[in-house]
Amino acid sequence: MSAAAGVALIGMLALAAAQVQAQQHRDRGGPGPGRAEHYDARFSHNHYYVNRGAFVRGVPGSPYIVARGGGRYYYSGGVWYAPRGGGFVVIGAPIGVFVPVLPPFYTTLWVGGSPYYYANDTYYVWSADQNGYQVVDPPTDESATTTQPPPSDDLYIYPQSGQSDEQQANDKYDCHKWASSQSGFDPTQSAGGVSPDQSAAKRADYDRAMRACLEGRGYSVR
Known about the structure:
It is a single chain. By secondary structure, the chain is of the alpha+beta class. The protein folds into 2 domains: 3-94, no CATH class; 157-221, no CATH class. It is built from 3 helices and 14 strands. It has a 5-stranded antiparallel beta sheet, with no helix packed on it. It has a 5-stranded antiparallel beta sheet with strand order 8-12-11-10-9, covered by helices on one side. The termini are far apart.
């Protein structure tokens, strides 16, 4: 092989590697090469996002528009934008606003048995009253945050109406809160939060309440 052919081959291999790397980059949720961006690795989230403060001429995709305090915010792909000088600037998510859907890439976190949804340094919680997700402050004690859901309490739950994983998590948490209030037993606390002599009876009450609540929401419980 001539020296010129060898150089050409190396160039082709480098181009192919760059194309693979770019595709992998996009697969991790990034906006693509050539943009000011950061890699969010918190809680093993592992996705790329445009840096806050970056200026863009237009908001990508089909953004959801939020009006608040006389201003307008644009939400797309887990990134928040505000109008600025003939274009848009990337900002932090405004605390307290509601959106109808979560970012396309999100990580479910659990704090004291409560589900939070995390993406791009932003936390969301489900609000049944608003039928949407609210942007909230980070949990007070982030050291207690885990990606592991609370114990299933030995109940095997099967969706009967095509409920999504996200809806199942919300339903389980809502039923958990209701069952705890009805029984006085909370399996996320040590010994259920009751005295040892009451634990077995209270646990049985909790399981019955969970079963009734979940079955009422369209699940089969075993």
